[in-house]
Amino acid sequence: MRTTVNIGYEIRGKRSPGRPRSERAHQAILSCTLKFLESKDNGFANLTIENIAAEAGVGKATVYRWWPTKAALVADAFASSVTQKLHFQDTGSVRKDISLQMRQLIKILRSRRGHLVSAILGAGQSDKTLIRAFRERFLKPRRAEAYATLRRGVARGELAADLNPDLLLDALYGPIYMRFLIGHSTLTPAFVDDLCDLVFAGAEARELPVPSRSLANASGAHGAD
Amino acid sequence: MRTTVNIGYEIRGKRSPGRPRSERAHQAILSCTLKFLESKDNGFANLTIENIAAEAGVGKATVYRWWPTKAALVADAFASSVTQKLHFQDTGSVRKDISLQMRQLIKILRSRRGHLVSAILGAGQSDKTLIRAFRERFLKPRRAEAYATLRRGVARGELAADLNPDLLLDALYGPIYMRFLIGHSTLTPAFVDDLCDLVFAGAEARELPVPSRSLANASGAHGAD
DNA sequence: TTAGATTCGATACAGAGCGTCTTAGATTGA
DNA sequence: TCAATCTAAGACGCTCTGTATCGAATCTAA
């Protein structure tokens, strides 16, 4: 299943004969998919290939040629939209670095882009391709950055060295995703602050910093599915 | 929209004339819906009313008569299946009471019943009726029990009295739901233990127990949607 | 310049499932 | 008995699916 944004032709100057793929059509399809999913009451369920094709001024077969399923299309649209505005700073304080990024995340989740995330995660519950795309293209890169941030905190003695980084990150981000997906309570900056107060209180170093073991190989800490 | 399990007839002995509703058909429909959603690769998306009707040996119109949408049917099926095996004990330790219940929860989520939960939460992302049904019928009753458990902990001086109960509960259960829905890591009893270690460390009382304010009116702490 | 390859937009097609409706029969209270 | 309400079965028009076909367009290679 094709789930990568891959123009497919013109690799090292070589190009197979034939009419080249229309980049205009490609972009129009992804753009219309994003626009559809970001709008108010639309979700994965009522997105139809026919609508997207018509909206993009494209033949239906052109969509099916490049994306075998609706899920693959949405996954690519999501990947092409992943914001670059979600980074960790280096303020000298882990707690500050992370809470700032958490604030950025809830801002995105509460914006129109949030609809896209809930569409992906929602449809992902019955389509493993989608949820995998979310993990690989969204979660994993951000985790990699977070690991680096945590390692800085350990080196500065702010965090316990033997703390499991995935445990800490899930404790911080899990409540955000839970509130986002279940909607039983609001996602506010004050909530982020309180959450950080609570979780970091249990994550602080209680002895002098020692060479980290569990954080040293943090990037390999992803468990199986 | 009808989303309550309501037999509808025979209220206070009064019954309108006409053939009574077939309880056999009613139960067969709910049962087949549950069976379908609990099986391996089935989700809300590929559940069809026609299949359910055929499987239950029931006319399609009989389904539509009682449930206006697929979502209402699934919500009712879910409500009729909500296990009674998910309660909090009173061991004398909040941490123990809650971690035991968390272990029960992950056991359910990892079982066939977990498919039902992910189907509800997944489809709920594009159907507010469903996600509301989950909150009202599953989350809220369990939260009410959890508040009581936390109050006991405050009274015993195990928890800080000024701690927001929803914050603490989201910090504990959010990571479970996140792992369950995103699947980036596993839901094991060891994870529950580590998570409790981390979160309760920040929730412990650091002064003598005082009369609780935020926990006193905990049952009214649910925010807006 | 030409032949072959590949894509394009458009549309036709069969199939699945939707939600409504009709039918004929069953079961109740008045 | 009769009106009311339910039942199972399935016909109906509709939308969307995913595939196939069409002539036109655009590229490489000979």
Question: What key attributes describe this structure?
Answer:
homodimer, 225 residues, mainly alpha, elongated, disordered N terminus, disordered C terminus, DNA-binding
Q: What helical percentage do the residues of chain A reach?
A: 55-70%
As a whole number of angstroms, the C-alpha radius of gyration of chain A is: 21 Å
Total beta strands of chain A? 0
- Total helical elements of chain A: 9
The rough form of chain A would be described as elongated
Strand content of chain A: under 5%
Report the largest inter-chain contact.
A-B, 54 and 54 residues
Secondary-structure element series of chain A: HHHHHHHHH
- Secondary-structure-based class of chain A equals mainly alpha
Oligomer: homodimer
Terminal residue distance of chain A: 19 Å
> Which runs of chain A of at least 5 residues are low in confidence (pLDDT < 50)?
1-12, 207-213, 216-225
Main pleated-sheet profile of chain A: none
- Compute the average pLDDT of chain A: 86
Question: Summed up, what is this model?
Answer:
Chain A has helices at residues 23-38, 49-56, 60-66, 70-81, 94-110, 112-124, 128-155, 165-182, 189-203. By secondary structure, the first copy, chain A, is mainly alpha-helical.
Could you explain how this protein is built, in words?
Two copies of one chain form a homodimer. Helices cover 60% and strands 0% of the residues of chain A. Chain A contains nine helices and no strands. With 225 residues, chain A is an all-alpha fold. In chain A, helix 5 packs antiparallel against helix 9. The model of chain A is unreliable at 1-12, 207-213 and 216-225 (pLDDT under 50). At the A-B interface, helix 6, helix 7, helix 8 and helix 9 of A face helix 6, helix 7, helix 8 and helix 9 of B. The first copy, chain A, binds a DNA duplex (30 and 30 nucleotides) through residues 15-22, 25, 48-51, 53, 57-62, 64-65.
